[in-house]
Specification:
Length: about 575
C-alpha cells in the first residue's frame, strides 16, 4: 500500500477554517454511523444498555479504521446526559448536551487524550494519571483515552497497571492500538477488547457515494470504486482521497481517469492487457504496454502491485467464482476476468503470484524500478511458456518429440533473447497464435490420440502420466512380470501389492487405450520387478560403480536421466 498512499495528511489541520475536510466533517457521531463494525456496535450497545460498563476498553485494528472515533463515541455514550440533562449512559448519545458537544469538539476537561506514540515515558503517564483520584469536574466519568498504547515504555505500563488494578469508580480507560500483541497481557486482561475490522470496499464505495451526493459533487462510479479500493479498509484514508479528488476537479465531474492519475494507478483494462501479453509470452508487447503506462505517469511498482492483485483475484475466481460479484468491479473487468481465470491453469497462476511477489520486493529495492519491473515481466513471460513440472516429467517419460521444445518456434515473438529459455513452447503452438492465446491452453490443443503402450515399462509410464502414481508405484516395485502381450498381462504380484491390483489395472488400461486388456495374476515366479531391474542397471553403470566404491554402503535411489526414456 505504501507506494499508493497519497498525501493523506495534507489537509489534516485545516479544520479550523470554515472549510472542514470530509474525514472530519463526516466523522461518525453515533454508533449506527460506524460502518462495517456491526459486532462491536452490538456488544457495546448491549453492555451499555444493561449497565455492564467495563473499567477499560481496548480498541484494536489497522490505522484508519476508526479507533479514535470509536473511543470518543464511547466517551460520549458514557457521559451523555441527554437533551434534558437527566439521562444516563446510553448507546445513543444525544449529540446536543453539554458533554456530547464538548467531547465532539475535543475540549471536555474530563476526557483526557494522550498519544503514546509521542509520549512514551513514565513521566508522561504519571502526569496523565495525576488527577485520577479526583472526581470528574462536570461529567459522569473521567475518561482517559490512550492512543497507540503499545508504544508505552515498560515502566509506563507498570505505572498504568497500578491504576488499572484498583481504579476509582469514576474513571474509565479507553486504549487504542494497531499492535495488540505488544500490549502486556496484564493490561489486556483488565479491558474489554474490541477488534475493529477493515471496512469492506463495497461499504466504503456506498459511503463515498453518499457523501459525494451530500457534498453536491458528481463522482463517476469508476472513480468511487478506485477510491474505495485505494482506501484499503480505511474510511479516513478514502475520504482524504475523495476530498482531494473533489477539490482538484474544481466543480466539474470527478472522473475515473482523474482519480487514476491522482493515485498513480495504471488503467485497469491495460493491466489486463499487460497480463495477457505476459501470459502469451509476447515480451515485446508487454514491454511496450509497460512503457506506455510509465509514460502516462503510473509507477512501475504500482503496476506490479496491480498485476499481483489481478493474479490474486483470478486465482480466487478459480476457487470461488462468486468473487466475480465484487461491486467495486466494472462489468468489462468482470467478464474479462472470468474468461481469463477459465483459461489459465492453477499452476500458472500460483507461479505468477510467486514471481510477482519476489519481483515486487526486488523492484522496491532497485535503483531503477522500471528496469526491475521489465525484468520481472520478461522472466514471467518466459516462465509462462514453461510446462509445469508434471508436463516435463510426462514429456521426458514418453520421450515424445511433440512435447519437446522446437528450436524454430522457441523464439518468443519480439523477444530479445530467444536462446535463453531451457524448455520452450511446444511446436504445436506457433508464435503468431500465442499472441492471442494464453499458453495455458497448450494442454487442450494437443491432438486427441489414445495411448498404445507396447511394453510393460510403457504401461507403468502411462499410469504415472495419468496421475495414478500409487498404482504406477505398485506396478514398478511389486509386479513380477510373467507374460506380456498387447492386451494381455500376467504377473505375480508379490506380497506387498494390493489384492485388486490386476482388476484396477485392467479396467484403467481398457479405458485409456480403448482396447481390451486382460490382466491376471498367475502363480509363477516371473521376472524381477522393474525397480529391481533399474537398480541392477544403475549398479552396472561405471559412474555409479565408482561412486559405490567410494561410498561403501551407499543406497541407490531411483536413477533417471533426462535423456533416458
Ligand atoms: Zn448527550
Amino acid at each position: 500500500m505504501t507506494d499508493r498512499q497519497v498525501d493523506k495528511d495534507t489537509h489534516k489541520d485545516s479544520g479550523a477554517d470554515a472549510y472542514r475536510v470530509l474525514a472530519r466533517k463526516y466523522r461518525p457521531t453515533t454508533f449506527a454511523q460506524l460502518i462495517g463494525q456491526d459486532a462491536l456496535v452490538r456488544t457495546l450497545t448491549n453492555a451499555i444498555t444493561s449497565g455492564r460498563i467495563a473499567q477499560g476498553y481496548m480498541l484494536t485494528g489497522v490505522r484508519g479504521v476508526g479507533k479514535t472515533t470509536t473511543a470518543r463515541l464511547i466517551a460520549r455514550a458514557l457521559n451523555c446526559i441527554g437533551p434534558d440533562g437527566k439521562g444516563g449512559p446510553t448507546p445513543e448519545p444525544c449529540g446536543v448536551c453539554a458533554n456530547c458537544t464538548a467531547i465532539a469538539e475535543d475540549r471536555h476537561v474530563d476526557v483526557l487524550e494522550m498519544d503514546a506514540a509521542s509520549r512514551t515515558g513514565i513521566d508522561d503517564i504519571r502526569e496523565l494519571l495525576d488527577g485520577v483520584r479526583y472526581r470528574p469536574t462536570s461529567a459522569r466519568y473521567k475518561i482517559y483515552i490512550v492512543d497507540e498504547v503499545h508504544m508505552l515504555s515498560e515502566k509506563a505500563f507498570n505505572a498504568l497497571l497500578k491504576t488499572l488494578e484498583e481504579p476509582p469508580e469514576h474513571v474509565k480507560f479507553i486504549f487504542a492500538t494497531t499492535e495488540i500483541r505488544k500490549v502486556p497481557v496484564t493490561v489486556l486482561s483488565r479491558c474489554q477488547r474490541f477488534d475493529l475490522r477493515r471496512i469492506e470496499s463495497a461499504d466504503l464505495h456506498k459511503l463515498f457515494a453518499q457523501i459525494s451526493k451530500t457534498e453536491g459533487a458528481t463522482v463517476e462510479e469508476g472513480a468511487l470504486a478506485l477510491i474505495a479500493r485505494a482506501a484499503d479498509g480505511s474510511a479516513r484514508d478514502g475520504l482524504s482521497i475523495l476530498d482531494q479528488a473533489i477539490s482538484q476537479s474544481a466543480g466539474k465531474k470527478v472522473t475515473e481517469t482523474a482519480v487514476r492519475d491522482m493515485l498513480g494507478l495504471a488503467d485497469r483494462a491495460l493491466v489486463f492487457d499487460l497480463f495477457d501479453a505476459v501470459m502469451s509470452g509476447d515480451v515485446k508487447k508487454a514491454l511496450d504496454l509497460l512503457a506506455d503506462q510509465y509514460a502516462a505517469g503510473a509507477s512501475p511498482v504500482v503496476i506490479l502491485q496491480d498485476l499481483l492483485e489481478l493474479v490474486h483475484w483470478l486465482t480466487r475466481m478459480k476457487v470461488a467464482p462468486d468473487g466475480a460479484n465484487d461491486p467495486a468491479l466494472a462489468e468489462t473487468e468482470r467478464t474479462r476476468g472470468v474468461a481469463m481465470a477459465g483459461k489459465l491453469g492453477m499452476p500458472v497462476l500460483t507461479r505468477s503470484w510467486q514471481m510477482l511477489l519476489k519481483g515486487l520486493s526486488e523492484a522496491r529495492a532497485a535503483p531503477m524500478p522500471l528496469q526491475a519491473v521489465e525484468m520481472v515481466l520478461v522472466r514471467m513471460a518466459y516462465a509462462a511458456e514453461l510446462p509445469s513440472p508434471a508436463d516435463v516429467i510426462k514429456s521426458l517419460e514418453s520421450g515424445g518429440a511433440s512435447a519437446r521444445p522446437s528450436a524454430s518456434a522457441a523464439a518468443p515473438s519480439g523477444g530479445s533473447n530467444g536462446g535463453a529459455r531451457a524448455v520452450a513452447r511446444g511446436s504445436a503452438m506457433p508464435s503468431a497464435e500465442a499472441v492471442s492465446q494464453p499458453t495455458a491452453q497448450l494442454a487442450q490443443t494437443k491432438p486427441v490420440e489414445l495411448p498404445a503402450p507396447q511394453t510393460f515399462a510403457a504401461i507403468v509410464d502411462l499410469f504415472a502420466d495419468k496421475r495414478e502414481i500409487v498404482l504406477a508405484d505398485h506396478l514398478k516395485r511389486h509386479v513380477h512380470l510373467v507374460r506380456f502381450d498387447i492386451g494381455l498381462i500376467e504377473f505375480n504380484p508379490g506380497k506387498l501389492a494390493p489384492k485388486d491390483l490386476s482388476g484396477q489395472v485392467g479396467k484403467l488400461l481398457t479405458q485409456w487405450t480403448g482396447q481390451r486388456w486382460v490382466v491376471s495374476v498367475v502363480n509363477a515366479a516371473g521376472a524381477p520387478t522393474l525397480h529391481d531391474q533399474e537398480m541392477e542397471q544403475a549398479k552396472a553403470d561405471p559412474v555409479v560403480k565408482s561412486i559405490l566404491e567410494a561410498f561403501p554402503g551407499a543406497i541407490i535411489e531411483t536413477v533417471r536421466r533426462a535423456d533416458d526414456t
